[in-house]
């Protein structure tokens, strides 16, 4: 085998092609997309291989507006600002924020995997939505695991972002069996507790993206892209007016090792 044959087709992609001076995304000339389609539409095209219809485009735009910032509540912003303080580099700060984003339990990806599995159980075993919800909740309780996409800090009854996304999804006819399964899981989880466990924005995004046939990996990516504007703004703010080389003050740190010897 020649060296050329060994490396032939080493990397193959159906996403992007360069032809002379032109760039094609899923077969569409990029210059022709610029200024004609929204960012959400081009993102949809890049991931799914086709342009969205009007309903899908509007829903994608709404999803991209759902997570612009969490202030200092989640880990991404503090991580991004801390790194930007020590290394005032835009790319380094952005990368730190992305690396600190949610895990399987706290992103649409984990919730999406659960929703697809629950829906598959319903179809394969000919179960009702309620029966599937019972099985899922019992499984998670037995394994003492958190159901991804559910729960908010104590005292918050519902996620305002998720509530708005559901309203939009309902208007667009995107409340289907996958969403209803997940909502039944929430009802089953809350039953017998002193307070309802709400579906958070990650769980709601997963419901909608499942109804739109997105892969869980794509869901996590869309959430990350939605979060980037806030991380970008925080990194820039830190670089322009933050404290160089931030430290952790003594009041929030404690040494628990061996005393001087």
Can you put this structure into words, describing what you see?
With 261 residues, this protein is mostly helical. The protein folds into two domains: 12-52, no CATH class; 53-244, Orthogonal Bundle (Cytochrome p450-Terp, domain 2). Helices cover 56% and strands 4% of the residues. It contains twelve helices and three strands; from the N terminus they run αβββααααααααααα. The chain has helices at 3-7, 30-33, 39-48, 54-64, 76-86, 90-99, 108-124, 129-142, 160-171, 177-190, 201-211, 216-241; strands spanning 16-19, 22-25, 28-29. The protein has a three-stranded antiparallel beta sheet with strand order 1-2-3. A hairpin with a 2-residue loop joins strand 1 and strand 2 (22-25). Helix 7 (108-124) crosses helix 10 and helix 8 (129-142) crosses helix 10 (177-190). The longest helix is centred in the C-terminal third of the chain and has 26 residues, at 216-241. The model has no long low-confidence stretch (mean pLDDT 93).
Question: What tags apply to this protein structure?
Answer:
56% helix, three-stranded antiparallel β-sheet, single chain, 261 residues
